[in-house]
Design goal:
Strand content: over 45%
Strand order of the largest sheet: 1-3-2
Helix content: 10-25%
CATH class: Alpha Beta
Number of helices: 1
Radius of gyration: 14 Å
Distance between the termini: 11 Å
CATH topology: Dodecin subunit-like
CATH superfamily: Flavin-binding protein dodecin
Number of strands: 3
Structural class: alpha+beta
């Protein structure tokens, strides 16, 4: 039987929400092993004038505990 744990990560990107999600997983993987999935809970963006300058995600990362 596997034991799974969920952590919540906030991440951002100047490119896209998809890139922000990739950044969340990439940075979490530096200290967390056995990542199984990522769930994007919320998305938001920072607007400056007429354009989006920053994409943000609130992601839940699930990993297996040894």
């Amino acid at each position: 039987m596997a034991v799974l744990k969920v952590i919540e990560i906030l991440s951002n990107s100047s490119e896209s929400w998809e890139d922000a999600t990739r950044n969340a997983v990439k940075h979490a993987a530096k200290s967390v092993k056995n990542i199984r999935s990522v769930y994007v809970k919320e998305q938001s963006a920072i607007v400056n004038g007429e354009g989006i300058t920053e994409f943000r995600v609130n992601a839940k990362i699930t990993f297996e505990v040894d």
